[in-house]
Amino acid sequence: NPIANRQRSVNNKGMSNRLFGNVYGEVDLLKSLTFRSSFGGEYYSFSGRWFNWPTYENAENSQSNSYSENAGTGFNWVWSNMLTFNKSFGDHTIKVVAGIEAVNEGGTYMEANTTNYFSFDPDYTTLTTGAGAATHGSSRYSRSLYSQIGRVDYNYKGRYLLGATVRRDGSSAFGPDNKYGVFPAFSAGWRLSDEAFMKSWKWLTDLKVRGSYGTMGNQANLAADNQFTTYNSDRSSSFYDINGTSNSLVLGFRQGRYGNAAAKWESQKYTNVGFDATIGNRLLEIVADYYVRRVSDMLYAPELPGTAGAASPPTVNIGKMRTSGFDLSLGSHFDVNKDFGFDITATFTTFKNKIESIADGIDYFSEESRRFNGNNIIRNEVGHSVSQFYGYKVVGFWNNQAEIDAANELARKATGDPDAVYQTEAAVGRFRYDDKGAGIVTADSRQFLGNPTPKFNYGLNLGGFWKDLDFNFFFYGVQGNQLWNQVKWWTDFYPSFAGGKSYTALYDSWTPSHMNAKAPIQENAGSFSTNTVPNSYYVESGSYLRLRNVQIGWTFNNPAIARLGISRFRLYGQAANLFTVTKYTGLDPEIGGGSNTAFGIDEGAYPVIKQFLLGVNLSF
């Protein structure tokens, strides 16, 4: 109940403070040699308190209540020191940069919780007034980065452009043997429009071809303490009444993290070729790129078997992945006359992803954090894209018992087992799964059901003016991806959740008189052939086109306004997310959440909201 949720949180409070800034100094040591030092950072703190009420309207309400408080502080700073040599020698220009950079960050966090309150009055609820057992915890972290940077840029008459960069980055999150990584990059450009043989092409204002290759290190997925095996002590997990008497808990320890001091920098190699062209007086502007990104030694924390205990898994280096695509931008700026002009920019981006290897003897890994009734939804497999959906493919319904009997006979012939059945818990009105030609549905019948990565996305920006009126429209679209609509498990199957059902469940489920339905027969019990295993019923097209933003403004050009000292007076109206064109049946096809290897699952995210804005721009 959203109204109840808002009312119950009305007395929840929080406060955050942030102090940030930067300072720099620059000195010209010689005419062409400059030294610059800059320091920037922030300090922040936060605190909050919240009360969890019983949810009386829910059938599964436990009547419990609890109160919590938290607080934390943190800081980060960056100190950069750069020496720059910049000089022109006739038609030649060279720029050399050398420097060092240090980054440091850290923070603390604490939280406490108590349950079983006699009164829910916000003036009464504190950590000391609850009758239940109190729990508390705290943590702290710190990490640092040190980099050495060198760069050389050269150009001849602005026609031939060369650049080279090398970084040596060291992170405290890695062990002593792999703390540093070296990452070079190179780029080149050629402005053909300045060549003599291009001068006859009067319609071509500018043309430049370019290419680059570089390596970049990544440590974003790495915990600050990943290299260390740690042990924790807490009452709920490691205290034990070893003496067998009441109230004699003995302090104990449990493993908190498995360390991996051998982890090293993830390497991302980029290759890019492209061109920039301008035709006429900005009548047509083209930017086109083809890119390839190869990732090796990917940092990933695999799920551990249950026998490993509750300790956090270490982040390790696994596999290789290739991503490629084509980026295209077309723009046009055209002034018809002084009273009317327009700008049009269209963008188009393709994206293709492929896992090339994982580890010796391992062809795939699943995301244990994204499960469906104990089954994995996502499989990351060599030769496939990241985060693809995996399960049983629905090919129709069992419309009568004769179909089931015929399929069972086929299964017995295929297996030689007189007791074999084609599909577990097959019944009239339930899903029929694809057997992949085996004659029987088994775990091997599971297959890839969809890819959350779009084949391409596109955008269109329309802007212009007519006298004192200006306007801008921005459209954005995604095409060729699929989403896993997990919400259907709750809304389309009665045994999953006995609450409100969807229109599909009530009016478009299988019945003897309505066999061409979307949902299977509605029953009181779940089964393998309906809702207890991942299947393609949950996979839908995620393509959409959305009007992201609209803005219309009017600028007043009145002598009376100028006499008031106002040089510009503009009123505007703006709207966001006015409409979305999609076949997706969920609340919003633009879902977020997940991780780099598990995304595209809709578990009921709040839909995008329409926003309306009125504003004024004044210049004096």
Structural description of this entry:
About 5% of the residues lie in helices and about 50% in strands. The longest helix has 15 residues, at about 400-415. It has a 19-stranded antiparallel β-sheet that branches. The protein has a 4-stranded antiparallel β-sheet with strand order 16-19-20-23, with no helix packed on it. The model has no long low-confidence stretch (mean pLDDT about 90). It has about 625 residues and is mainly beta. The chain starts with a helix and ends with a strand. The protein contains 6 helices and 32 strands. It has helices at about 1-10, 235-240, 400-415, 490, 505, 560-565; strands spanning about 15-30, 35-50, 65-90, 90-115, 135-155, 160-170, 180-190, 205-220, 230, 255, 265-280, 285-300, 315-335, 340-350, 350-355, 365, 370, 375, 380, 390, 395, 430-435, 445-450, 455-465, 470-480, 480-485, 540, 545-555, 570-575, 580, 600, 610-620.
